[in-house]
Amino acid sequence: MNSITQLDLSLLEALQRLHCKALNVFFGAFTYMGEAGVFWILAGIVMLFFAKRRRAGCTVLTALLLELLLNEHLVKKLIRRPRPFTLQPALDTVIPHPCSFSFPSGHTASSFAAATAIFMYDKKLGTAAYIVAALIGFSRNYFGVHYPTDVLAGALFGVLIGLLAFAIVKGVSRLFSRR
């Protein structure tokens, strides 16, 4: 086990000491909000109904599609990092064990991709989205289903994907506005 993994596990063990019913419910709500990106998909779809938010909605949905393709179907399968509870069975995850690989966190990547997409159009709403994204990411550490480095990488990857989605939607919008 390398030193980064040891540090990751030490941080997760420290978080285990915070577990209580109230925090389990609080962070459980956020971890389930990030499940399969459903919260962010719905947010993107709702934005499509408002002319002022339509482009942001398209960017959110584009970011989520890119995250699914690049993170879930490419990076995770290339890295193949096992979940923390497989190395440290004493971790009390409280929630069911995910079956996919650990690196990077998909909940975090999709949340930060969507938050970045929103932020590019509306700083105030985007800041709120970043707070939700951070809570979703932290919840994955709180429950011990991701290493802290998985969440950090997921956040960084998500921001980059959000920026890429913004550039794609902006380019497509320019292309169609010229016609």
Quick summary of this structure?
The chain is mainly α.
Tally of helical runs: 8
Strand segment count: 0
H/E topology pattern: HHHHHHHH
Sheet/helix structural class: mainly alpha
**Rg from alpha-carbon coordinates:** 17 Å
In what range is the share of β-strand residues? under 5%
What overall geometry do the principal axes of the alpha carbons give? elongated
Main β-sheet description: none
The amount of helix comes to over 70%
Overview of the molecule:
It is built from eight helices and no strands. With 179 residues, it is mainly α. It is elongated. 74% of the residues lie in helices and 0% in strands.
List keywords for this structure.
elongated; 74% helix; 179 residues
Outline the secondary-structure elements:
Layout: H1 3-16, H2 21-33, H3 38-48, H4 54-79, H5 84-87, H6 106-119, H7 123-142, H8 148-177
Helix pairs in contact: 2-7, 3-4, 4-6, 4-8, 6-7, 6-8, 7-8
